[in-house]
Specification:
163 residues; alpha/beta; 5-stranded mixed β-sheet; 5 helices; 17% strand; globular
């Protein structure tokens, strides 16, 4: 009987530890499962630029607002929603608004390449000596975003952490 009690206690402790670890993982990315599915792929990007000293929550929200306004200004509906989350708006999220969109890592990288062309047209990058050396991810780092998550709005999400 004592041996059975010890086994039950061991199993209960293992279950509690597993649940605690699952809770920690969920706390690490509380937006997964709400704004996007669990990321199917992740990467860390070593930025070529530091975060600007005056990049703060207001600047990041201003960036997202300007980008959204630009998309809404087009003569066609926006293909993506772009928004920032986190206490300091440090998490950039891009969500496809329609099916049959970007649903693979390769297509997501194509989108990031297109956004790089847009980033290189910004005043900041145009005023550097070599704007062709910087990417959309560098712009994200300049603004102080810590991560970007792209999702097709269904079953695919790719997450990039900026360092």
């Amino acid at each position: 009987m004592a041996m059975l009690g010890a086994r039950v206690l061991t199993c209960a402790m293992a279950l509690a530890a597993g649940l605690a670890m699952a809770g920690c993982a969920a706390a690490a990315d509380r937006h997964a499962g709400y704004y996007y599915p669990e990321p199917t792929s992740q990467e860390t990007y070593q930025a070529r630029v530091p975060t600007l000293a005056d990049s703060d929550r207001r600047r990041r929200i201003g960036f997202v607002t300007a980008l959204t306004a630009e998309m809404l200004n087009n003569p066609y509906p926006p293909q993506y929603a772009v928004f920032a989350k986190g206490a300091e708006a440090e998490k950039l999220i891009i969500t496809a608004l329609y099916g049959n969109g970007i649903d693979t890592l390769y297509r997501a990288r194509g989108l990031f390449a297109m956004l790089t062309a847009v980033a290189r047209a910004t005043t900041f990058f145009r005023e550097t000596n070599a704007p062709e050396n910087y990417t959309f991810f560098d712009l994200c780092k300049l603004l102080g975003f810590k991560q970007l998550t792209y999702t097709n709005g269904d079953d695919f999400a790719h997450q990039v952490k900026f360092e």
